[in-house]
Design goal:
alpha/beta; Rossmann fold; five-stranded parallel β-sheet; 8 helices; 5 strands; globular; binds thymidine-5'-diphosphate
Length: 202
Amino acid sequence: MNTDYVAFEGVDGSGKTSYIESLTNHLEKKQIDYKIVREPGGSKLGEGIRDLLLSHEYEVEPLTEALLFSANRANLVEEIIRPSIEAGIKIISDRSAFSSVAYQGIGRGLGFEKIYNINDIAINGFWPEKVILLDIDPEISLRRQKVNDRIGSSDIDFFKKVKDGYLELAEKFENDFLVLDATQDFEFNTKIIYEWLDVDST
Ligand code: TYD
């Protein structure tokens, strides 16, 4: 595999989990050491922040939301991601700082640059090396998977902006992003992922 830190991104219900499962099963077969992390969450402190962020119990205004996500990430990078990579373990991440640029920056309207910069400070430049974006119309993905948490139950216009935010990111960082049509055949997409990551698919 040609990367130490790969993130899967996409709107809610885009199918990240299935692709992560397939990739990590394959890495296991190939005896490649890996660790799965998820955001929000991923560490003890992170799981606490995740509860604050996703529970309907709290009212969280957009900037606070962005800062909580970035605080979660600062902890995750220092506690898990950086030490794992230094120990030769690959990180497969379910979401990353790019989610914040799409969801908080574009979806919530806080601004691409601003949220990019807040996160760049939080993670000290430790962005994923490669990003697999599962692109899908949110009308389809939300029909596929109903999400009831505070952010997942936002209205459709929010998710349409998030999708646009992701495409803007993919355009800006085109060398680091693989954009896949998430409605395409699963095996077909998996093959493209293996090729792009230079993982032997046999
Ligand atoms: P989760 O249950 O992990 O959703 P999914 O299975 O779609 O990844 O919930 C995470 C929710 O938080 C999801 O709606 C996306 C949102 N989110 C942000 O708004 N900003 C972020 O930086 C991250 C990591 C997630």
